[in-house]
Amino acid sequence: MKFRKRETDTKVDIQMSAMIDIVFQLLIFFLLTLKIIPPEGDFNINMPIGAVANANDDIPPMDLKVKLEANPDGTLKQLYFGSRALGNDFPFCFERLNQDIAAIAGGQQGYSDDLEVELDPDYGLHYRYIVKAISACRGRIQGDQQVTYIEKIKFAPVDRPE
């Protein structure tokens, strides 16, 4: 049996033109997507000497709290605005809540940016009461227009029953 001799000196040709094309395409891509940021902190501005600031007498933003207590069957037991009880006569208690929010928010003028309402519903309360409280705090509909009292409404952490 005769064995053939393998050639060990075979040379593999690497195609460099395709590799150079890819490198130039990548280079062009990165050059075109580069965002040049101007140097920071090198401002040649002469600022006037400041005067002593007066104490600001603005009222800090108010946080309004609405508490909704539930009966064991999930109906509304009591609605509180701050520490004031508004009752449980659905839907009239929510109308009183809307009037109180309107008095604080400015009534006809629209909403206030610095007001925020925190809703604190009981765990077992039916969802319709929560939606009604959100609607009463948010504003009202007058004719075809919506009058917004408060934009920011958040929820207090819910305590699960044991």
Automatic annotation (TrEMBL):
It comes from the Bacteria. It is found in: Cell membrane. Keywords: Cell membrane, Membrane, Protein transport, Transmembrane, Transmembrane helix, Transport. One of its GO terms (cellular component) is plasma membrane. It is a single-pass membrane protein; Single-pass type II membrane protein. The chain crosses the membrane at residues 12-34. It holds the Pfam family ExbD. One of its GO terms (molecular function) is transmembrane transporter activity. Belongs to the ExbD/TolR family. This is Biopolymer transport protein ExbD/TolR. Its main location: membrane.
